[in-house]
Amino acid sequence: MIDNVYFVFLLSLNYIQAVWIIAYKQFLSLKESLILTSLLVVQGITSIWLDNTYFTLLLLFFFLAQFVFVTRKLNDWLISSLLLVFEDALILISWLPTVDLWNILLLKSVVSLKTYTTNLFFLVIAQQLLLALLFFITRYILKRLALLNSLALLPKKNRGLSIAILFCLFLSIGLQQLGVFKGYSVAYFYSTFIVIGFNIFFSWNIFLLTKYYKEKQYSILLAEMYTQEKQKIELATKFKDTYKELLTNLTADLEVNDLDHASQQLNSIIDYSDSFLTPNLYRKIALVNTPSIQGLLTNFIKKCDTASIDLSLQVSQELSSSAMNLVDFIRCFSILLDNAYDATLVSQEKSISIEIEGDPNYITITVKNTYVENPEIALQDFFQNNFSTKENHQGKGLYIFSKIVASYKKATYRISKKDSFFIIVFSIPKLKNPTV
């Protein structure tokens, strides 16, 4: 049977593949991936001197570190738990027809020790290649179906479910390893079936949940568009009944050269018609074509409307082709919106402008907002950690924004001020082969 030292070494290689093929960039930064790789290398080396019964304890450090890194990045326990489950399920699948089955056949005396030893090297290579193939297929599916984008729509309060998932995962893996080392084929196949079936069950339910939340977000957007259009139609109908009378009064004022009263009449016509001549912002949001970002903008429109902030929105580019992780993009975009909202609230003229546009290589987000200028504060000071002009405010938003942008190659931002407006231009490279 394969020596436990080699088993731990091979398992470490499996998880290193998981880190760099599946998790890197999608869930982990370069620094985090290197830390996890170092943990796995240390695990493989120390297994030579440690009692073999403790190798699973070393794996727990890896599981915990990856869970913390992914949770901190995505702020979502469920995705962190499911990532571990999927990684282990794929590893179990790759070992099942290769090394594990060969070990059980040896323990059951179906094959001789000589035959086992002769063919073990080729089975180990087959396991590594099969796992790499499974990981590459999984990565392709994640990108093709934009599953991470869909998972971002799910509610964040899933800690109890996440703990239950991890408990079942570790229990099944423990049973599976016991079956391999003791030759209990029934326990091995049973625990493997649990892990794989577990993945299928949760994958299907998550698919249904994400589909539900997508449809729910789209329904909310349609309802807002309908409400705004209905209000405009009602105002237009009322205005139609009084429009002739207003024009008659305006003409009469001009005939008697009563310019002051004519000016008042004209202003009343402009004010009265402004509400239904204003473009439907919710209709523009529909062009974004990403439900989670549509929800962010929908809530922001309501927020600005409540605070009587004049909001302008121009959208000429979909965001599905962005090379930035959706969760990171939403964090960056929400920070810019929150910063613009807070600064505008204390300014005399309350105005915010948002432009989403693109060219063949980049998507560009421009956020302009009025603010109270302080000559003693340089523009770059706003991006310092813990810096804020607002009382009792942590001042971490724009600092976090700058750090996220810096973690992506070719992603840039620039700041400026013009005519009492604070301007941030945020550019993200497009994917070379965007998903359809």
From TrEMBL:
Keywords: Membrane, Transmembrane, Transmembrane helix. The chain crosses the membrane at residues 6-23, 54-70, 77-96, 116-142, 163-181, 187-209. Residues 324-429 form the Sensor histidine kinase NatK-like C-terminal domain. InterPro entries: HATPase_C_sf, NatK-like_C. The keyword Transmembrane helix applies. The keyword Transmembrane applies. GO terms for molecular function: identical protein binding. This is Sensor histidine kinase NatK-like C-terminal domain-containing protein.
